[in-house]
Design goal:
Chain lengths: 574, 625
């Protein structure tokens, strides 16, 4: 690739042609502040924080979009630039609530950080009008507070360009400009899948997950309740970030210890029910494959994806695996099998799950997920919410000693662990299915072709005399392209894994912020490391799985399995 | 069929007879037997009833069996809108103004039957009181040089035959058959034509960028999203001479290698849209547009895209987004549309008036074009004169003419003999120029030097009763409500400027406000994303620069020198008061007191400045200060 050389703040920088000034500067270690820019999104140059002086331009230019040119001279910190940046911040603050100290994003807010970094010390416009909006808390997952919106458009871009759900758009003009859903309806009235990508990219507190931590505290403090928690695979490789650790830190044991410390009576591992999912889903796949069932079969673990399918592809719902998600399965198991074993009245159990996901909050209230006779999972909190609880409880995360999950139901294999990354469910399923099809205990179990953060991956897998064609999609944009092919008959796969969030659960809408593809990559690597060092790496080899089938379920796809571990889907009309 | 210049000439000769009366010099001494009656069908005249005049005229003619002798033509705008509906009768070019349907009978009887012009319908010069018999005698037209508006008001815009008859499409045929793409671009570069939409970028240079961009597909766009308050020249050109714009676009398309184009026109211009549709259809039928034009192998397909009323869609990248079906929001440049425009393809975008200049440049050459205007700003410019001026209307003048000539010689001076205060040029991106700049020659560069810009050519004339702070507030209010909302400085900054200006006009301004306005303006200009934001503070900066004393009067003395800011006005009852008590009875807050038949008094502290007493006093005894 052709490189150009330019001068930034007197330093000669070489950058590939097509790089923006911002990219060139950052690659040379020169920091330019940004607000609307996000490395995972197409830049729009709207907020004007990243403005710089560039030779040849009459006005200041947005460095996130201005392409580098040979011989260009760029200055990023002149008096003119600094005055304009401060003005941008001051103008944003003038139209922003001043309740930072009690804001959910206090400490995580990019606007707050920018104001501090840019040295804004005055409110010259605090006499001005401030926009007034109503709060949207209409759904179980996300809360929108438009008064905190700075119109950076990240939510619009992630929903439009990556998720392709187009829930948000700019509306109105001038000071009345807003980020709006169709006809300014509540999120619950439009085709929002609650994937929460908007919340994970929102620089301020304008879109946040609905906070359910108070309900958890209440349950813990209620002596009449047995409070049980399950933790999703991808939480253990992200929670460290909430506690000030490096991205990709594996904190499984610390996390379990911290949860006990918070007062949970039992701490279980969703990796276990991920293994259970593989058993049911794997056998379901084989069943469909051999008995001429509907193919391609598509995974159903990701509630954002299930919502999207119910909203936009209701005619294709029979492609979805009827197996519940790992959260859903565990929910039933806890209030039936576990309650029975532990001789606890399920009415006294409060089942909590810690998820990387905002859509799980909506999944747990699905009317279909009450097979225990109660709502199977009572409260879902995200990784971010758990982080807040741990900080509030003053848990010294760095020094807390690692402990194991409760047993039984506390052991998950490496196959369960990799559920948290795009391709992981597929790989876990293949490990089990391949053993069943070939009748062997295969050694070669790493299906690297389905790993990685590409949005769509595909492969052909030889299993004995059978060739299985598979595809893996992450992000709802990639999912829609795939589903259009399924609909028009050009997706000749047997099995497809779809995850709503870019990168899979490690990139979930409830994961720590800030986030970007580099961080997600580190989280994914950590999951594969957990898998690599696991004693058991195939779901069907999980001793706890063997036990539960022996003691209760009999075998995959048994009548009991169908009763407790499978579910139904239906068209969502909004 | 391969068209040649000769074949076009043959067509022209055939159609010429239909317009011959309008083209030839006539001998006034002989009573003519056939007439062309041209009735203005521009939006202005149409809304004051020109269609009814036409109907009535045709009725009167039919009643006398004269329909075969009198050719009634509905034309585009004549420009002198103030005096509409306008009618011109050939031979003789008799100019009638403020015609009413009831006048039709007299016009037919007196003028057409008996050769006696209807004197009461002639235009009488406000200065010397003398009637003008022909259009050429009207002072409004005397200093004009009509290149763009050449045929506006002279031909029927809905008949391609009339356009061909007056020489139309000769330039397109010449370009396609005799000139290479580079030659066309060279001619336009040599002519010095600059974009008439605002910033004045050299047109030929712009074309060369699009031509040099490598692509399998290119587009041409005509920006007819005329949005400046008071500007209506593009509308008039589209309504009066649509083929001229199509011809210019087709030539540009050929020059850059585009085969498809869009005219982005405001949906609020229904007549322009309708006439464009007719024109495109007729041009396609005749082979001037469409597939394989005259066997040249070149396609030029033109479409109309109606805008939904957003001012910002006049900004080219927003306009392109809008054509693509997205919300009309600008994006940073580069890449420029010449490289990545509509659907990501190289695109040339000029405005209506720019394209309307092209045919003449190709026909008569760059050297001819440079006879008009100045070296840096050659050619003419169409201005829309509005505001407190006698002759509201459209005037096309050579560049380099002074503002004084436009306002006084063409515009007929200030309404009601009041004193000139300022002229606003360039719309919301422009500036208010004071009296001391009236002798400034009007060119792109001279205007930029004084902090204004040509803009699309709207001229709003203001007299002594206009408050300049109020004017600045008006324009900032306009840009604030039309800001796309995307970038912070424009969206939030203009709002704060508006709030400051509002409080100054309401008497709440402080001395630091002027400095704050200037700081805001400086940063909005520097940091905004597109031209709208980058120029939005101009009306404020120019009024602070040239009318600072007025700002200071508002701030320090809580006084509006022009008496326009209601909140700062005080109503005072003078000795002319007869004590009738009407004001006291009308006062909604009951703060006027006085005995019957004695002078009344207003409690200034409690007065809400509603002005009811002032407007209703039968003796004009109340004054506003």
């Amino acid at each position: 690739m052709k490189t150009v050389s330019l001068t930034i703040n007197g330093i000669v920088v070489k950058a590939p042609q097509g790089f923006s000034i911002l990219e060139a500067a950052r690659s040379a270690g020169i920091y330019i502040p940004t607000l609307c820019y996000h490395p995972d999104l197409v830049p729009e140059g709207a907020c004007r924080m990243c403005i710089v002086e560039g030779s040849g331009a009459k006005t200041l230019v947005a460095s996130c979009m201005y392409p580098v040119e040979e011989g260009m001279i760029v200055k990023t910190n002149t008096a003119k630039v600094r005055e304009a940046r401060r003005m941008v911040i001051e103008l944003l603050l003038a139209n922003h609530p001043k309740n930072c100290l009690t804001c959910r994003k206090n400490g995580d807010c990019e606007l707050q950080t920018m104001a501090a970094d840019m040295g804004v010390r005055t409110h010259r416009f605090d006499w001005g009008e401030r926009k007034i909006h109503t709060f949207d808390a209409s759904n179980p997952c996300l809360v929108r507070d438009q008064e905190k919106c700075i119109l950076c458009g990240r939510c619009i871009r992630v929903c439009r360009d990556i998720q392709q759900m187009n829930v948000y758009s700019f509306a109105n003009r001038g000071f009345n400009s807003i980020v709006s859903t169709a006809f300014e309806q509540d999120l619950s009235k439009v085709a929002c899948t609650y994937c929460g990508q908007c919340a994970s990219l929102c620089p301020t507190g304008a879109i946040v997950e609905k906070d359910d931590t108070e309900r958890v505290w209440e349950a813990i403090n209620d002596p009449g309740k047995v409070v049980v928690v399950q933790v999703a695979p991808s939480v253990r490789v992200a929670l460290g970030e909430e506690m000030g650790m490096e991205a990709g830190s594996i904190v499984t044991g610390k996390m379990v210890a911290a949860l006990r410390n918070l007062g949970f009576d039992k701490v279980f591992d969703t990796n276990f029910s991920a293994d259970l999912t593989i058993m049911e889903e794997g056998y379901e796949f084989l069943d469909r494959l051999t008995k001429g069932g509907v193919l391609p079969m598509i995974t159903s673990c990701s509630p954002g994806w299930v919502n999207m399918c119910e909203l936009k592809y209701p005619d294709l719902l029979n492609h979805l695996s009827t197996a519940k998600s790992p959260q859903g399965m565990f929910g039933t198991v806890i209030k039936t099998y576990f309650a029975h074993q532990a001789e606890i009245d399920p009415a006294h159990i409060v089942s909590v799950s810690v998820m990387p996901c905002t859509a799980k909050k909506a999944e747990c209230v699905r009317p279909q997920l009450r097979d225990s006779g109660y709502q199977d999972v009572d409260i879902v909190i995200t990784t971010r919410e758990l982080g807040r609880m741990l900080r509030e409880a003053g848990i010294d995360f760095r020094s807390i000693r690692s402990v194991d999950f409760d047993s039984p139901l506390g052991y998950g294999t490496g196959a369960g662990a990799i559920f948290g990354s795009s391709g992981g469910v597929m790989e876990a399923a293949l490990r089990t299915v391949a053993d069943i099809v070939t009748g062997q205990d295969l050694w070669d179990i790493e299906y690297t072709e389905v790993r990685g953060l590409d949005r769509t991956k595909e492969a052909q897998i030889q299993m004995g005399d059978k060739e299985i064609r598979i595809a893996v999609c992450n992000s709802l944009g990639a999912a829609q392209k795939m589903m259009d092919r399924v609909r028009n008959g050009t997706a000749s796969y047997h099995f497809i894994e779809i995850m709503a969030c870019p990168g899979g659960c490690i990139g979930g809408g409830g994961q720590p912020v800030p986030t970007n593809m580099d961080i997600k990559k580190k989280r994914a690597e950590a999951l594969y490391k957990i898998d690599e060092y696991s004693q058991f790496r195939k779901s069907h080899e999980n001793p706890d799985i063997k036990t539960i089938y022996k003691e209760w379920l009999e075998q995959p796809l048994s009548k009991k399995s169908h009763q407790y571990l499978h579910t139904t889907y239906g068209r969502q009309k909004r | 069929m391969m068209i040649t210049a000769e074949k076009l000439k043959e067509m022209q000769d055939v159609y010429k007879t239909a317009v011959s009366l309008r083209l030839e010099k006539n001998d006034r001494n002989e009573q003519p037997t056939v007439f062309d009656v041209l009735i203005c069908g521009g939006t202005g005249c149409k809304s004051s009833g020109s269609k009814e005049i036409q109907r009535q005229l045709e009725y009167e003619l039919a009643a006398r069996g004269m329909l075969d002798k009198v050719h009634v033509v509905q034309t585009g705008c004549h420009g002198f809108c103030e005096n509409g509906p306008l009618m011109i009768i050939y031979p003789g070019q008799f100019f009638y103004c403020r015609v009413k349907p009831d006048d039709a009978g007299e016009i037919v009887e007196s003028h057409l039957c008996n050769g006696r012009p209807v004197e009461r319908l002639l235009y009488y010069d406000p200065v010397d009181g003398k009637p003008a018999l022909t259009a050429a005698d009207v002072s409004f037209y005397k200093k004009q040089k009509r290149i763009v508006l050449e045929h506006c008001g002279r031909i029927d815009p809905e008949k391609i035959e009339e356009y061909i008859a007056v020489g139309g499409y000769a330039a397109l045929v010449k370009a396609l058959t005799e000139m290479t793409q580079d030659k066309v671009i060279e001619e336009v570069i040599d002519s010095g034509l600059r974009g008439r939409g605002g910033a004045g970028f050299p047109t030929g240079k712009k074309w060369s960028f699009a031509k040099n961009a490598e692509s399998d597909k290119k587009y041409i766009i005509c920006n007819a999203d005329e949005g400046d308050p008071g500007a209506f020249m593009d509308r008039s050109v589209l309504e009066g001479d649509p083929h001229r714009v199509l011809e210019g676009m087709a030539i540009a398309a050929y020059a850059i290698g585009a085969d498809e184009g869009y005219i982005y026109v405001r949906a609020e211009y229904p007549l322009a849209v309708q006439r464009l549709k007719i024109a495109i259809q007729q041009a396609e039928e005749r082979g001037f547009l469409g597939k394989n034009i005259f066997g040249s192998g070149k396609d030029i397909m033109l479409h109309i895209k109606e805008g939904a009323g957003a001012f910002v869609c006049g900004e080219e990248t927003a306009l392109i987004a809008s054509i693509e079906g997205r919300r009309g929001m600008p994006r940073p440049r580069p890449p420029f549309p010449a490289n990545e425009g509509l659907w990501g393809k190289p695109t040339n975008n000029n405005n209506v008036e720019t394209y309307a200049n092209v045919a003449q440049i190709i026909n008569k050459g760059a050297a001819w074009y440079r006879h008009f205007g100045t070296a840096e700003s050659p050619g003419t410019k169409v201005f829309a004169l509005t505001g407190k001026i006698n002759h509201t209307g459209l005037a096309e003048v050579p560049m380099g003419i002074t503002m004084r000539e436009i306002i006084y010689d063409i515009g007929g001076g200030i309404l009601d003999g009041k004193k000139f205060k300022a002229v606003q040029i360039g719309g919301p991106s422009g500036a208010c120029l004071p009296e001391e700049l009236l002798d400034l020659p009007v060119t792109y560069d001279s205007l930029t030097e004084v902090g204004a810009m040509m803009g699309s050519g709207g001229l709003v004339v203001m007299d002594e009763t206009t408050c300049m702070v109020d004017v600045a507030k008006f324009f900032i209010n306009f840009t604030q409500s039309e800001s796309c909302g995307q970038c912070t400085p424009c969206r939030e900054g203009t709002k704060r400027m508006l709030e400051i200006l509002t409080r100054i006009t309401e008497g709440g301004g402080s001395e630091s406000d002027l400095e704050l306005l200037e700081i805001l303006a400086r940063n909005i200009k520097q940091a905004s994303l597109c031209g709208l934001g980058q120029t939005a503070p101009n009306p404020v900066l120019s009024t602070i620069k040239y009318f600072r004393d007025e700002y200071e009067a508002h701030i320090k003395e809580k006084h509006c020198p022009a008496g326009a800011c209601e909140s700062l006005a005080s109503y005072i009852i003078t000795d002319a008061c007869k004590g009738c008590g009407l004001c006291a009875r009308n006062c909604p807050v009951h703060v006027i007191t006085g005995k019957v038949k004695e002078k009344h008094c207003i409690d200034q502290e409690r007065c809400i400045k509603c002005g009811t007493c002032y407007t209703n006093c039968p003796f004009d005894a109340i004054i506003k200060e």
